[in-house]
Design goal:
Blueprint (H helix, E strand, L loop, with lengths): L3 E3 L2 H14 L3 E8 L21 E2 L4 H10 L4 E7 L11 H20 L5 E3 L17 H18 L6 E3 L12 E11 L5 E5 L8 H5 L5 E3 L7 E7 L8 E9 L7 E5 L20 E5 L2 E6 L4 H4 L5
Parallel strand pairs: 1-2, 2-3, 2-4, 4-5, 5-6, 8-10
Antiparallel strand pairs: 7-8, 7-12, 9-12, 10-11, 13-14
């Protein structure tokens, strides 16, 4: 049976009212903020006390959140959910999360007499966008998390809950790359140079949002001489940069193809029609063959809702 993950008190009330109106008893997981620093980009740190996600344990609000949910007859509280952040490489992040979440589960049992039967600690394992990023042995890390959960549950004398994790980008990011066509090359002697593409923040806003790093490759031989460029997008924004200060062949020219690696996650799903540009197509490769998975948006597609 599916469930709703409820983020806060207002959502709890709204969902309870909707379930009651429909004559249903809705299963929910309550999103708790454990107060974990995952040492990742600030913008994708979702586990600290003062983030916009979930209800914090440290302030005592999480306990009141659970108490309120248990008092709503149209809701079935099955368990807890948390998510501490993305691009997590530190091996102890999920172990610390387990410690805090099981501790909170034990506190709820002792104070409210309720035992959760499910625990979802979200996702967040990182992938290698550049050679400087570490490589996470995810199966080994999950085994460690599972062992830690069993140990802490045993110490707290709690029944072992149904345990969930969300793999997210760790299983899809490496499966994709974005190929751009160079529209122009602009050199400002003594300052910097730009390679301007036919894409940008409309199909990949991650650098604009939080400085995400990527590996960028030229798609064809262009000589050995290299130069440093900012890879820029076509939007009317100075901040429309796909990746700054990258090394490309000095002879890079209009019409060349530039590949940005590891874009199988958080690219098309974050794409927009900013500046009224259409979103790019998605092409799948399998067994040496290619096929169109998502067609390119036309001007007619972008204007389809205009009245």
């Amino acid at each position: 049976m599916g469930c709703f993950i409820v983020d806060n008190g207002d959502e709890l009330i709204a969902l309870s009212e909707q379930a009651a109106a429909a004559g249903k008893r809705q299963k929910v997981l309550l999103r708790i903020t454990p107060g974990i620093d995952p040492h990742t980009y600030h913008a994708i740190n979702t586990g600290a006390v003062d983030v916009k996600f979930g209800v914090p344990v440290e302030t005592g609000q999480a306990m009141e959140f659970v108490r309120a949910a248990l008092g709503m007859k149209s809701l079935e509280v099955a368990g807890l959910h948390c998510h501490v952040g993305s691009m997590v490489f530190d091996e102890d992040v999920f172990l610390r999360t387990i410690d805090l979440m099981v501790g909170f589960m034990a506190d709820v049992r002792d104070e409210l007499g309720f035992t959760f039967r499910e625990l979802n600690v979200g996702g967040g394992y990182g992938v290698r966008y550049t050679d400087d990023d570490p490589m996470a042995d995810i199966p080994a890390r999950i085994a460690e998390v599972g062992a830690r959960l069993k140990a802490r549950i045993g110490e707290a004398s709690l029944p072992l809950p149904r345990f969930l994790m969300e793999p997210g980008r760790s299983i899809v990011a490496d499966a994709g790359m974005t190929v751009y066509t160079v529209c122009s090359v602009k050199r400002i002697p003594g300052y910097k140079s730009y390679v301007v593409t036919d894409g940008g923040m409309t199909d990949n806003p991650r650098f604009c949002l939080y400085g995400a790093q990527y590996t960028v490759l030229h798609a064809a031989p262009r000589g050995r001489l290299r130069a440093i460029f900012d890879l820029a997008g076509r939007c009317c924004e100075s901040g429309d940069i796909i990746q700054p200060a990258i090394s490309l062949p000095a002879a890079t020219a209009r019409g060349d193809r530039i590949a940005v690696c590891t874009t199988g996650a958080y690219n098309y799903s974050m794409a927009s029609n900013y500046n009224r540009f259409g979103r790019p197509p998605v092409v799948m490769l399998r067994g040496g063959e290619s096929f169109l998975a998502v067609k390119r948006e036309s001007v007619e597609d972008v204007c389809a809702l205009d009245v």
